[in-house]
Amino acid sequence: MSRTKKFLGVVLIIATFSLIFILNIPSFLTNSTKVKTDITVELDFLKNNDSKIALLYFGYVGCQNICTPALQNITEIYNELDSKNLNFYFINLLTNITPEIIEPFVKAFHKDFNGIYLNKKELQAIEGNFRLNLVSLEEYSLNHSGFLYLLVKENNSYKIKNIYVTKPFDKEQILKDVENLI
Q1: Do 121 and 147 share a domain, yes or no?
Q2: Is the pLDDT reported for residue 3 higher than 90?
Q3: Alpha-carbon gap, residue 26 to 51, rounded angstroms
């Protein structure tokens, strides 16, 4: 490989990590465990959802250091919530993982959790609204933001109301937020 290509590769890596840092500055500069927002999102898998509230977590099957502890934390929180008014969705970020693996993976954490597979085009369409900051490391590995999103149904569409940015997620804060919205 030529020196120019190596140099450009290093510059690209530095630029990518700089962008991730810049996009996540609000979570570094605040003591808050969440970021409030009011962004309307269109997600096909939510079109038939009757629940007033949806919790979304973006990760991937096989992510042991970030996703597994986060899903354990989310399970603890979910067990204390009124599941009649709430659904949880784990959206897999690796498009090279077969869709059949996702549902059993997430159901291992809680029987009511929903595993979602999105193809590359679908992920790209929502990446900006959710500030996913995806950086591919290897074929089956990905660096990603591990935020939890609280969406509320208003007038037959969903709005992102809160993005929980610190881990472990603040159980008391999330329980309070959901209770206030229900």
Answers
A1: yes
A2: no
A3: 30
